[in-house]
Design a protein that fits this description.
The complex is a heterodimer of chains A (113) and B (114).
Chain A (H helix, E strand, L loop, with lengths): L4 E3 L2 E4 L5 E6 L6 E8 L3 E9 L2 E4 L8 E7 L2 E6 L8 E8 L7 E2 L3 E5 L1
Parallel strand pairs in A: 2-11
Antiparallel strand pairs in A: 1-3, 3-8, 4-5, 4-9, 5-6, 7-8, 9-10, 9-11
Chain B lengths: L2 E4 L3 E5 L4 E3 L1 E4 L5 E7 L5 E7 L5 E3 L5 E5 L4 E6 L8 E9 L3 E6 L3 E6 L1
Parallel strand pairs in B: 2-12
Antiparallel strand pairs in B: 1-4, 3-9, 5-6, 5-10, 7-8, 8-9, 10-11, 10-12
Classes of the chains: A mainly beta (113), B mainly beta (114).
Chain lengths: 113, 114
């Protein structure tokens, strides 16, 4: 199994630009999670999906952030417009069943200048 | 809602010495507990988990943890560490009945020195 795949691994952009992060969960997993990791706030859950449906987006910081899951094998997290305070490592994770082990991708390190 | 407190932010330890990382949780309902490890510039990897049954849980790389319900703790231990164990360790909790959000502790950085 290839595990959770995220792309790009690194992204450097300028303030005001649109950023799209991508995730491919483990095949057969029915839950997908997006997290953000910063030194100040640690690991924060942004949003999660069950069977491609967004269940809880209460962690999304503001309207500049949006996430979609058009099918079981692909999800995107979009930031538009990006700001320097969005600089962080963004992780995608997937699991089979609620409350079960979450498997994390390698993360996307985003730097907004 | 449940939460996790990792009592040590940094733990320096010599190679081949034992290490214990402390984790306390708060929850009014039954929980699942996890320890994850994050090596530099990598994602999180599951070390071990407690779902039910035996309170002593063995994981990968020689780590083990003990679930103590009365003390609401889930401390992680390894009897003899290696340089390669240098990493950040996260304790996490989830409520499998009502809320399957994984709540993470702030992390403990373990630095193993020769």
């Amino acid at each position: 199994d290839a595990g959770v795949i995220q792309s790009p691994r690194h992204e450097v952009t300028e303030m005001g630009q649109e950023v799209t992060l991508r995730c491919k969960p483990i095949s057969g997993h029915d839950y997908l999670f997006w997290y953000r990791q910063t030194m100040m706030r640690g690991l924060e859950l942004l949003i999660y999906f069950n069977n491609n449906v967004p269940i809880d987006d209460s962690g999304m910081p503001e309207d500049r952030f949006s996430a979609k899951m058009p099918n079981a094998s692909f999800s995107t997290l979009k930031i538009q417009p990006s700001e320097p305070r969005d600089s962080a490592v963004y992780f995608c994770a997937s699991s089979l069943g609620r409350g079960r082990t979450q498997y994390f991708g390698p993360g996307t390190r985003l730097t907004v200048l | 809602a449940q939460s996790v407190t990792q009592l040590d932010s940094q733990v320096p330890v010599f190679e081949e010495a034992p290490v214990e990382l402390r984790c306390n949780y708060s929850s009014s309902v039954s929980v699942y507990l996890f320890w994850y490890v994050q090596y530099p510039n990598q994602g999180l990897q599951l070390l071990l988990k407690y779902l039910s049954g035996s309170t002593l849980v063995k994981g990968i790389n020689g780590f083990e943890a003990e679930f103590n319900k009365s003390q609401t703790s889930f401390h992680l231990r390894k009897p003899s560490v290696h340089i390669s164990d240098t990493a950040e360790y996260f304790c996490a909790v989830t409520n499998p009945i009502n809320d399957y959000k994984l709540s993470f502790g702030a992390g403990t950085t373990v630095t193993v020195r020769a």
